Amino acid sequence: MMKNVRLNKPAIVSRAKSEPTPPPFPRSSELDESREDNGRFKCAAVYWKENIKGISFPENGRMKLDNTHLLFSGIFGTKIECDLKNIISVERAARMGGMVRDAFRVLMRSSDLSGERNGVQHVDDDSNNMSYLFTIVVKDHTVVMDRIQSAIDEASKRNGKDDGEMSEQQTLFRRLPPDDVLQKMTIIGKQKIRGVSMQDYFEVAWSEGHHCDKEPMYEPFLTSCEKNDVKVHKWESHEKGYKGEWCGETYNLQRIVTFNFMKKTIGETLVSVKHTQRCRRIDNDRCIVHMTLDMKGFPYADCFVVEVRHVASRVGDNDILVEIGLFVRFLKSCMFESKIRTNTSAETTKLQMTLLARVVEGCKPFAREQTGDDESDVMEGAVSIVAQRDSRMMHILTAVIQFMVTYILSMLLWPLIRLKLFDPPLPPPKSTMEALDNIRKRVLELQKISLNDNVPADQKASMVKEIRAVNAALSRIEAIATASKEG
Predict the structure, then answer these.
(1) Of 98, 161, 203, 297, which residue is 20 to 30 A from 336 by alpha carbon distance?
(2) What is the DSSP secondary-structure string of 240-306?
């Protein structure tokens, strides 16, 4: 759980404009070592300046951490000074469109939300906070994150927050760390639900009307998706909890959902599905529902299961952000893994996004307030990014294959054409006469083939008669075409 501290002045980002030259950059031997010097932690770091278009530009420098501030000095004169009392969280982050997860982001509350200063700060859209993206040159970035978090905790204690009380302003801008298990999955959808408490969200989406005044959600949803024999069992609890097989986490609640449906494969087959759903709530800040989908009744169904994870996190005072992750887990090797993963992901994504839309609609009557533009609340999930990327890759792959096939065929057929062992296809005729000439050539070839020595005499006579009829028909067509042209 992320620690919370008081929020005072924002971070200071400045450039040494008054200095004729930037301060000398430390020697490489100094940068390659991280050490503690009189209580100050130092290490080499890279600051990624993010502009409004989302493009990041790196600047090498040195990061320093003391009892009150997190400092960064860059080789081009950029200076960042973050008061520990003003840091909201230190989160793991990704670069290069999520492909590289070697960075961390320092999230801060800023009193100046009019825009970016010096074009180097990133404004977080969820709560208008400022953030700074760093990577570490040599040392593991998680170690540095732990150092910074420990310094934040110590600063919080020194400011009289040992009792755990938080001000109203801190509560509004507190940010939870990312869910670790969700980071291992493909994010297929996100959506912010405004004005809804975590309790209302849980009762609407997952309680199924037990111990509350909300209407059932999950069983009617599956029934509307043409699922048969739907049974949603009640949530069960155990003093030792329920441990997830894949994620390894312990949950407080567990329930079983079963249903079946007809699936088109070679024919139609009856597919039986079992959802093992586990739930854990972290105070009023986060609700996690993890599902393991086990299917039977079609080929290779015993080779895999599908892991789906719904993570609802509080954002601000009354809003929550729902993220859905998906992972196809193979239990044994299968030659059709790629096809199974693609088809299963597409089907599951469609079902889960439909469920999310129904949950949002179900939560609207219980919203305390409605602020902002509803359209801005819907954030495209990774599924759209993945789908677009897969579409582009498929288009490129198809073009490459077509070029290679055309080139190889040309290389193989060219010697045959040169040796006149292969007749290339005739070009389309441009006139009636040209078309008739082409047909006559083919009829002549037909006559040579059909009247060889292997054909019986009675059949030869019949073929000669039919070929004469074809030639006569062609002559009549030619006469008609000539007459119409002269006329």
Answers:
(1) 98
(2) EEEE-TTT--EEEEEEEEEEEEEEESSSEEEEEEEEEEEEEEETTTEEEEEEEEEEESSTTGGGEEE
